[in-house]
Structure formats: C-alpha cells, structure tokens
Amino acid sequence: MTGASDARARLGLTLASGLALVWWSPPTAACFAISILAGWVLEGAGTPGHLAFLVVHGALMVLARELGTLPVLGLAALGLQQLAWRLRPLQASWLDRLFTFLFLPRALAGPVWTVLPRRRAAPDPSGWGLVLLGLVEKVVIADSFAWHADAVLDGHGSPGALQAWSGLVAFAVQALFDLAGLWHVAQGLGRVVGFPLPDGPRHPFAARTLADFWGRWHPSLAGVLREAHVVTGSLGVYALAVLFYGTHPMAVLAVAVQLGLLGLERVSPVHPGRAAVWLAGLHGLLLFRSPSLERVAFLQDGLVGVFGPGTADPASLLALVGGVMVLAFGPPDPVRVFPVRSRPLSAPLAVGTGLAVLVLWLAQARPFLYPRL
Known about the structure:
This protein has 373 residues and is mainly alpha-helical. Helices cover 72% and strands 0% of the residues.
C-alpha cells in the first residue's frame, strides 16, 4: 500500500471514530475535543503549559465524574497519551496526532503507544476471532466470578478466611479478564482494519517482581511511561490519577501504597518472589475495590483468619480454587489462539461472533468494568 492510501485510511478511520464517539456520547466527544484542543494550544508553553494542561484535563475528569455518565478512565487515558506526547516531542502531523488519540480500538484499549503506525497492514479477518475471544473472556470468565466478588466485598458481615480469600481472588479474575476481554476486542478490530494494536495483559501473576506484575497487567501503559521519561511521566500520571480519583479516595490510597511498595522493591537487595508479588498485587486490588477503609479492615481481618476459617461452601471453594488456577495460567496469548494472517475464517467467525452477541443478550452481561469507572 502506498503512503497516500495509508493516509487516506487513517483519515477515514479517524473521522469514523470521531463520529462514533459523538453518536455514543456527545458530552464525552466534547470533553475529548476540549482536551485535545487544550493540549494543542498549550504545547509550546513549556512547564507552565504542562501544568495548565493538567489543570484543564483534570477539571474535565472531575466534571465527568460529577456527571456520572462519562467514561472518566477513557479521559484519563487520553490525558496520559497527550502527556507522553508533550514530554517527548515527536515529528508528527496533525493526522498522526488525531489518529493516535481518536482511533476507536486505541480508545477502547487505553494507552497503546505514543504514535500508531503510519503504514497500514493488510486487513486480517482472523481479528474477528480475537473479538470473539474477548467477549468470551468478558461474559464467560469475568462476569462468572463477579457475582461472588460482589457478594463478599460488598457484604456487611465478618467474612471467614475462606470467604475473604475467595472474594478477593474472584475480583482479581474479574478485573484481569474484564481488561483482557476489552483489549482483545479492540485488538481484533484493529487487526480487521489493518492497524493492529500491541498485546494486552500477559500472565501478570507469573511475575516475580511487583514492577513486572503491573507491567504485565497493562504492558502498553508501562511502555508509555517509559517513553515519557519515567520520573516526569510518573509524577504527571500520578497528578492525573489524584485529579481523576478525587471523589474516590480508596483508589488514591491504592495507587499510593503500590507506589510505596514499588519504591521499596527498587531499593531492596533481593527480589520479593512470586508469593509476595501475589500478596502485594491482590492487596492493591483490594484497596481499589473496597468502598471504605472500614470494609478494608473487616476484609483484612478475614484474610488473616480473625473471624475463623469460614464455611467451606461450594461457591467459595470453586471461586478460590478455580480463580487461583485462572490467574496462574491466564489470560491466554491471543497470537497462539488466533495466529496473525491465519487462513480466512470469515464464515465460522461471523457465526461465532453472532452466538457471542446472543449470549451477551441472554446473560444480560455487565458493562465492561474499565470504561465505566
């Protein structure tokens, strides 16, 4: 494909993505437009411009949180993408920027990389298989564990050790496979239109350091932070996180604790090991998910057995044992499931995707976790 045809494809996909955003949520589209315009206007203003951009974008996220109907995390991802661009200026046209910020699969998946590819690959119909994989991960795995996580983490009693651990592990499965499902849907759509995205979550619970754990949980976010000069980028992202989660103090606490643990890990002469990484990662998810410090205290007491071992009911046993197995071996590597440039599978994949949509309707599946945060 020629450079001109690649540019036309990116322009068409940018316009289509913008129109889809306007159709889906005009207020969200307005917030995206204001953020992109502010980043453009303040680009040459140096450090004061960076601070002004953080204020403008943070105000948009607070507004979105107050309205309660906008995808605040999507705005946070857009702000991070622009922050990375500001901290590492690149030679890029206006089309490069808009395509990077608005391309629909990238917007679904969050931070991907600083600049999406200029050259278009050949459209690959096997991407519909990735879409199907993502829907299965969401509906069959994440949603199946979510009900048990909600029952334990949102409960009002004093959970026994079995119930507390099973609820925490169930939420870890829900959070990981909800993200993996959303990512694989986006990755499949990108492959179908010829602009494939990089890989998403890749076996975070196989990590032996906490830094590797969160890097595996969201590889593209770790990549953007590395590209944006780690220290400055991390401070900027943390400022965005505080603004974003201004009405969600437990999430701010979760971020602060994980940053503290990462700092201790950096100066420690020994690596913590896989068991310690599991405990630290699960603790971060517990803080993020819990509605209050009081509930965290009850759950932590339950985890250490203050309220006894708990009842060995089938639901808790299944959630705990099955959840640990799923976390230890998942999510699956999509390249092994649906190799790039595999033989055309349009008909069976169309049938499979249609069945997945039917399952979504019949099961009354929950919305994806991350876009509604």
